[in-house]
């Protein structure tokens, strides 16, 4: 009997010690979101900027990342884990820990609905409203495999955050056009972006912003402009409708499609833009063709 009691006591003490000191979260919130993991990840990044004290989202993967939020005198860590259900629904689990008052929260949570719990739920309800409003502003359609275009082009290389890609494009749109127009260089199609490096961990994007042109002997010599030929390659294609700032939502959709269909891809998308944002209009009518190159079999 004493041995049984000792074992039970040891188990109880072990559970208490685990709960107070080893359990990875003080509180857990689960909900379903009408979006894929990549869209949720990018939305959390945008939502995170709304807080007074900003710490960048700590990237692990598009379906697993950490967020630090300052609430009054506390620092809360939100660890997000997202599992896709299908192409428009995900299950979201958020493990929340108060880095300064963790023990107090763990002692109080089983016995009452604490301010910590109420505040955490409210923040995540606010996020869900933010996400639902965001996904109304764009749509993505996967069209399957298609060969990309081939063209001679004039390009400006830029490095920005992914969310500043469109700003970099607009800053160079008139610059590139004016220089080409001065030499009477004929355009040969809509502008496009060729991604050279997409660094999710450091939230950095290096890309060429290009205009397809007719090759000419009058090509202007400018240190910021590179002339190159883009060759066609097999890719997965998507059509994106929405603001160009968030066209990378199509990148994540293509990556999910490639994973589901066991297709090896290069995470170096090409985007072709068919509308000029300076002309305004309904953003849901702006069209972008998005291509994610398929890796060659010998790579």
From TrEMBL:
Instruction: Answer whether the UniProt record assigns the keyword Signal to this protein.
Output: no
What keywords tag this UniProt record? Membrane, Transmembrane, Transmembrane helix
* Pfam families according to UniProt: GyrI-like
The record's InterPro entries line, in alphabetical order, gives: GyrI-like, Reg_factor_effector_dom_sf
Domain spans labelled GyrI-like small molecule binding: 156-295
Positions of transmembrane segments: 5-22
Protein name in the entry: GyrI-like domain-containing protein
């Amino acid at each position: 009997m004493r041995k049984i009691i000792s074992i039970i006591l040891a188990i109880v003490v072990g559970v208490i010690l685990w709960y107070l000191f080893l359990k990875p979260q003080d509180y857990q919130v689960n909900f379903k979101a009408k979006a894929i993991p990549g869209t949720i990840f990018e939305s959390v990044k945008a939502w995170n900027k709304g807080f007074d004290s900003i710490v960048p989202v700590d990237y692990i993967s598009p379906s697993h990342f950490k967020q630090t939020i300052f609430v009054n005198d506390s620092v809360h860590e939100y660890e997000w884990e997202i599992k896709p259900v299908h192409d428009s629904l995900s299950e979201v689990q958020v493990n929340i820990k108060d880095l300064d008052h963790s023990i107090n929260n763990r002692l109080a949570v089983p016995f009452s609905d604490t301010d910590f719990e109420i505040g955490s739920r409210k923040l995540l309800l606010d996020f869900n409203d933010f996400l639902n409003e965001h996904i109304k502003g764009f749509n993505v359609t996967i069209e399957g495999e298609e060969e990309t275009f081939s063209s001679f082009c004039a390009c400006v290389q830029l490095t920005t955050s992914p969310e500043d890609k469109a700003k970099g494009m607009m800053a160079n749109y008139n610059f590139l056009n004016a220089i080409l127009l001065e030499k009477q260089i004929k355009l040969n199609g809509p502008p496009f972006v060729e991604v050279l490096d997409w660094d999710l961990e450091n939230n950095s994007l290096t890309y060429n912003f290009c205009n397809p042109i007719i090759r000419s002997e009058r090509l202007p010599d400018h240190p910021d402009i590179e002339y190159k030929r883009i060759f066609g390659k097999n890719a997965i294609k998507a059509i994106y409708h929405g603001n160009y700032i968030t066209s990378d939502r199509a990148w994540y959709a293509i990556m999910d499609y490639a994973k589901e269909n066991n297709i090896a891809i290069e995470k170096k998308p090409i985007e072709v833009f068919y509308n000029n944002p300076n002309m305004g209009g309904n953003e849901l009518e702006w069209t972008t063709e998005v291509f994610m190159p398929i890796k060659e079999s010998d790579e």
